[in-house]
Amino acid sequence: xxRSTLDRLIKVASPETVALSWGLVFLAISSAxxxxxxxxxxxxxxxxxxxxxxxxxxxxxGGLFLAFLLQGVFSSxxxxxxxxxxxxxxxxxxxxxYQKILAQEVNFFDFNRTGELMSRLASDCTTLQNTVSVNVSxxxxxxxxxxxxxxxxxxxxxxxxALMLVMxxxxxxxxAIFGKKIRKLAKDSQTALGEASIVANETISGIRTVKSxxxxxxxxxxYTSSLEQALGLVKQRLNAVSVFMTFAMVMGFTAxxxxxxxxxxxVILDHMTVGDMTQFLLYLMLVAIGVGSLGALWGDFNAGVxxxxxxxxxxxxxxxxxxxxxxxxxxxxxIEFRDVHFSYPTRLxxxxxxxxxxxxxxxxxxxxxxxxxxGKTTIGALLPRFYEPTxxxxxxxxTPVKELQLNWLREQIGVVSQEPIxxxxxxxxxxxxxxxxxxxEEVEAAAGAANALEFIRNFxxxxxxx
Length: 466
Description:
The protein has helices at residues 3-13, 17-49, 57-103, 106-111, 114-132, 134-156, 158-164, 168-205, 207-212, 216-268, 274-315, 376-382, 406-411, 427-431, 440-449, 453-457, and strands spanning 335-342, 353-360, 391-396, 399-400. It is mainly α.
């Protein structure tokens, strides 16, 4: 993970500093309790079991129980705090992503299909959610377990521990190599899943067309093909993770076998006690389990980094059309196009409008009539600045639209689209959508003007019908 990605995640996580700080405190306590267990076992073997001190057995068992109790309680608190902080971080991230998507110019949606954007909101954020919540908690726990375990291993027998360090460079090298591969595969698999979402979105949005031409089978084949491509990339990622986990586990078990041979020899020669040997083995098991878990988490973490890069690409993108500009005190509605030329950004080689000049006076009614593809819809899209002309200028009441505040300009324009879209709310809220502060009388007047008020009133809930 590069520095910029880490800085981004830290910035998003900064509001959760209190919860994460307490989580780290509980992490330290639970890790210390786990690391105390081998020490207590060593003391019990050397001072209770071997000397056969029955009077010390119950206190020894009580100490072990207390260590387990502390570990269980504080591990639960650590898990809760990290998880709830992670959930809030991802909710905040989803809000920022959705806000940024809505703030983009229409041109952005020509280059980024709806299904792909939905994939970033859904699957990418879900992948990132696991990374910044449960996986971070488990990763820190296992890292603390590994570091603490290594420290106590050196305290118990520096010779055995020094020999064990020979195993670390190969594992670290493997983590670096496989981590890079896993990160790339994770990003590619998320992109492939996005393609599958695009196919599904297109099909469901145009379901009437699909059914009219009896293309359900063809669309199912398209969707299945996209899923199979995503599955292939997921398999490659899982294979890479499995190979790394196998490599790390083999190295760990090799180390255990070596310790049993060398440590057993030290016990036989009276250079170590049985308690010391048991303590070393327990710490070694803690380290081995921690390293193995970190290996599994490494793959998930790299998948989260790949997802975060796709999410932050949008969050940090500045819209090409600025909302800055002046707000007029009133609007008469005079419109003028002066030598307007335009080509769609996706097809710059084809000029849709060539030197358009016309003027619409206040109160004048004008209809644009022409063949399909003649530019009627394009003219309607240029007025509210969905796109910018490649040449020429558009004026409203004598002021170039580029000088007007974008939101104010669009609030002065009423639109009835060719394909009306209803939001998931009441009839009243749908009518009020263009003017949220409209009174009930204004809503009813609008419904009456559209010849819809009578049949709306026939519904049991009237305007409140969903």
